[in-house]
Design a protein that fits this description.
The chain has five helices and twelve strands. By secondary structure, it is of the alpha+beta class.
């Protein structure tokens, strides 16, 4: 597993403007950035307090609390993917699959919540499920379902961070185009775009898993 640490540009060299902060975070909408506590000073305890008091899921990026983008259609798709993966993963005792509440500390100063994540059994400390609400845990597979509030720059940053942390495979699911971009590595050149009629598989990361891309998307006929 990778041992890289997250960059600390926001904490050590604070941006001069809100626009610069938003750009560093991946050109995200200002409405998703929490200013209490002030950006650069937030902690994991602040994240958990916000979750407890307001039921608001946030990610922690270099001391900045960023609200997790949400949407009904995106939630349906993430739920379908979680179900399909779980049916395979549990049957073959490969590990566990978490959903949009699965908070993970990928690196120091970096807490992310993949829409869906698969963690192999051998990645759990001591082979046991963690008890803490924010475990230091890096998934083998991370899945992000795109939405209008998730910018391209934000996704590019997430992909880079996922692979720096030790993730082996990332799926970017596009509900509008009904496609999946498969990232076996951090660069765009390594990725493969799959259309509805093509097959998505887990490769060496989720051994034996395979579905047609169209199975990931609900339709009016369902």
């Amino acid at each position: 597993m990778a041992t890289s640490t997250a960059p600390s540009t926001i904490a050590t060299d604070p941006p001069a403007t809100i626009a610069e902060l938003l750009h560093l975070l991946g050109d995200i909408p200002a409405s998703r950035v929490r200013f209490r506590p002030l950006p650069g000073s937030a902690t994991e305890e602040d994240l958990l307090r916000l979750l407890d008091r307001e039921n608001l899921a946030c990610e922690l990026i270099e001391g900045v609390l960023v609200e997790k983008a949400r949407g009904y259609r995106e939630s349906l798709i993430a739920g379908l993917i979680l179900t399909l993966l779980n049916n395979h993963v549990l049957a073959h005792r490969l590990g566990y699959v978490s959903g949009a509440d699965g908070i993970m500390r990928l690196m120091p100063q970096l807490v992310r919540i993949p829409d869906v994540a698969f963690v192999a059994r051998n990645r759990f400390p001591g082979g046991k499920l963690p008890d803490e609400p924010i475990p230091s845990l890096v998934p083998n597979l991370a899945v992000e379902v795109l939405s209008k509030d998730k910018s391209r720059a934000e996704m590019e940053r997430k992909i880079r961070e996922y692979f720096e942390a030790g993730v082996r495979l990332v799926w970017m699911v596009d509900p509008t185009r009904r496609t999946v971009r498969v990232h076996p590595g951090p660069t765009a050149e390594q990725s493969v775009l799959l259309s509805e009629t093509e097959t998505l598989d887990g490769g060496e990361v989720v051994t034996g898993f395979s579905v047609t891309v169209t199975e990931l998307f609900p339709t009016d006929d369902d």
